[in-house]
Amino acid sequence: MPDQSKFAAIWTLYGRSILVLCVFALFLHDIFGTHGYLAMRRTKLDIERVQSDINRLAKENAELSDEVKSLKTDPHKIESIARDELGLAKPNEVIIKIPQSQQSKP
């Protein structure tokens, strides 16, 4: 019986303080813990950043796929690349190249 009365006396003296400290510790853990509010917010921002990268790369991939398709099927595209980048010409055509320093700038 004396043990229970000691416990009751300690609880009445320090019970509220212990409960306040426990609630405060749980509050801190919910905000700053490994799965707390700040960690979840950081993870959400990382997910949004990765999703935007995925969308950008998907768009770039679609553009490159369209370009590959046009290079395989469009003769005008192939001809323009052959003329511009490779300097090729049709028979009886003359190519005149003007040096970059002599070209007029608009």
Q: Can you tell me the overall shape?
A: rod-shaped
Poorly predicted parts = none
Number of DSSP-assigned strands? 0
Arithmetic mean of pLDDT = 87
Give me the number of helical elements.
3
Helix content: over 70%
Terminal Cα span: 102 Å
Domain module tally: 2
Overview in brief:
The protein has 106 residues and is mostly helical.
Task: Quickly list its features.
single chain, 3 helices, 74% helix, 0% strand
Q: How does this model look, in words?
A:
- With 106 residues, this protein is mainly alpha-helical.
- It has two domains: 1-32; 34-88.
- The chain contains three helices and no strands.
- The protein has helices at 2-32, 37-73, 75-84.
- The longest helix is centred in the middle third of the chain and has 37 residues, at 37-73.
- The protein is rod-shaped and about 115 Å long.
How does the SSE layout of this entry go?
Elements: H1 2-32, H2 37-73, H3 75-84
